[in-house]
Write a structure and sequence with these properties.
Helix content is 35%, strand content 26%. By secondary structure, the protein is of the alpha/beta class.
Length: 227
């Protein structure tokens, strides 16, 4: 690949390498990843546990843990770079256009807060007026096929099943109308029936997103247009 990306590309990685500072050196964990995700498509990223799928997802979101750095290559969302040395700005720019749904939905939800409070915080950070947040939260939950939305908004995370928690997290990820939605083994550990339901829910909800990267095991590859 070259460094010129077509303007219709939702997400483009060009020879991205990632490492962690270790002593006086850098331990390389991801090497030379190149991929394009086109608008309206889903790209499946298949790999064994520990192959770097989650690390790449964190890099895309600008959220690598302390010591983690992008050591080479470039990342662009809708033609705009989110890499470089200004980590704080890059993270903010990425957060506005890309959302990530990670493996464990329970870990993504504050157990001390009702679901509406979680949405309220997310939507407030996105600049939405307070009088519009509840209706927006209800619409997002409805988009992932959650029934009895008003009741769910009053619940704490532990009062919801694992599948319901996952759908809530997907709805939260869609709150900023992302150009790119990354699903990082978002159905990991789920039963077959629940995986199918969550798959249909995420497909329905992400219809309006520009593109998607699905970092999953081979069992989920049917949801991607390319691998």
């Amino acid at each position: 690949m070259n460094n010129t990306f077509a303007p219709q590309t939702a997400l483009a990685c060009d020879n991205v390498s990632i490492g962690y500072r270790a002593g006086n050196g850098i331990l390389s964990v991801v090497r030379n990843v190149s991929l394009d995700v086109r608008p309206g498509t889903a790209l499946g990223l298949v790999g064994e546990s520990g192959s770097g799928k989650s690390t790449l997802a964190l890099a895309l979101a600008g959220c690598l843990p302390p010591g983690g750095i992008v050591t080479g290559g470039s990342i662009q969302i809708e033609g705009q770079s989110v890499g470089g040395v200004r980590v704080g700005r890059s993270r903010l720019e990425a957060a506005r256009r890309l959302s990530v749904v990670f493996q464990n939905p329970a870990a993504a939800l504050d157990p001390s807060r009702r679901i509406m409070a979680v949405f309220d915080q997310r939507l407030r950070l996105l600049g939405m007026p307070s009088d519009q947040r509840r209706s927006r939260a209800a619409a997002l939950l409805d988009s992932v096929k959650i029934r009895n939305v008003d009741h769910v908004l009053t619940c704490y995370p532990h009062q919801l099943s694992g599948g319901m928690q996952q759908r809530v997290v997907i709805a939260l990820a869609l709150a900023n109308d992302p150009a790119v939605l990354v699903l990082d083994e978002a159905d990991d550990g789920a039963g077959c029936d629940r995986r199918k339901r969550d798959h249909r829910a995420s497909e329905n909800a992400t219809t309006g997103t520009s593109g998607g990267l699905v970092a999953h095991l081979p069992r989920y590859k049917s949801g991607a247009q390319a691998l």
